[in-house]
Structures are given as C-alpha cells and as structure tokens.
Amino acid sequence: xxxxxxxxxxxxxxAPGAPPxxxxxxxxxARGFMPEDEGLALYAAATEAAALGLPLLEIGSYCGRSTVLxxxxxxxxxxxVVTVDHHRGSEEQQPGxxxxxxxxxxxxxxxxxxxxFLRATLHEAGLEDHVVAVVGxxxxxxxxxxxxxxxxxxxxxxxxxxxxxxxxxxxxVPQLAPGGLLVVHDVFEDPADGGQAPYRIWRRACASGxxxxxxxxxxxxxxxxxxxxxxxxxxxxxxxx
Length: 241
Hints:
This protein is of the alpha/beta class. The chain contains seven helices and nine strands; from the N terminus they run ααβαβββαβαβαβαββ. The N and C termini lie far apart (35 Å).
C-alpha cells in the first residue's frame, strides 16, 4: 500500500479498507474529536505502517476513539499499539474551557480521569489485548523508552501548546523507524481554524529533509520517514502568512 504525495486519503470512496464493523461502531460511540473521514485515513496509515512488523505509537489516548482504529490495524498485523496519556486532560479540556466534559471528572479527586473511558472503549471493541496503555506524561515516557527506532507509526495527538507539541516531536519522532509513518492531527494552516502548535511541528518535519508527504485528510497529515538522512521531502509547504 502506498500514498501518493499530497493525496487525499481516508474518505469512504478512497480508503484502502475499512475497519471491522465492531471497531467502527466503537469509534463512533467513543468520546473524542476526530471526524470519521480523518479516522479512516488514520486507519489506512496504521494498516500500512503495521506491515513493518513494529508496534504503533499514539500520543494522546483520551477516551480511545482513535486508539481502537490503531489497535485494529495492529491486531491484523500481529503487533500492538502503545498509547501514552496522563489521562488528566489537555489544556482545553479543563474546567471553564471549550472542550471540558464534566462527566469525565473523577469526583474522588476533583480532576479529570479519562483512563476508565479508554478501557471501556477498548473492551467494547474487543481490543484490550492489543493495546499497551502507558499512563504518564509524554516526555517522561519517551525518556524511559529511549531513542532507538522502535515504532512503525508515531501518531501525535497530545497537548496543543507549543511546549507540549514540541516535546512530543522531540521525544518520540527519533523512535520512528525508517520507512515508518509520522501522523500529526489538528494541523491547521489558518490560525482562525485552530491552534498552531501541531502545524508548526508538521512544518518542522517537512523542513527536516527526513520525510516525504504521504497524504492528508482534513486536519490529519501523514509523512513517511526516509531510509536515511535527508531521504525524504523535496518540497516544503509554504508557511501560513
């Protein structure tokens, strides 16, 4: 399976394969913010990356909406997904902010706790055995695992501040194997459409010379790592003015 550079992937008409029906039902039922066309593009990327025989990585589990898609692709290839989240919610999910969901607050501690919802989503989809959930902050987890290439896919969908997005990029992208896929969610070139931190790390990857463009669907961007230094991209998308 291959993506043409700058191709649009993941719509119902162009997706190379759909998730199993029970996985798609779980995706639709789970709390989360990923539109279905972007989810199908993520599943297509995960299916391709899983063929490398390496684990897949997700940064930002939330309640498991995207995790089930990654896990379904991993299961089919005989590998697993490692999903990293502290489960206390990102900045915009805290009380008083736009994406706060008070049903996700643990009354015992008065803070958000999305871990039970992730586990419920994985159980409903029958995918618990194909996911390794790492509960902790992304930079700490990245430091524990170390820099060796170990993942066939790195999906960046964590905190959307520059501090958090940059830490995710610097901590995890070195662990992406040659030929693997880097997927960044919520890439908005126009600041009026959303925060710019994911856009900036996507442009950083493009400018590095280590990646070629592999696809886009909505705010989802897919890049393929080359097999050596500067083995990838030939054009850098223009910066948003």
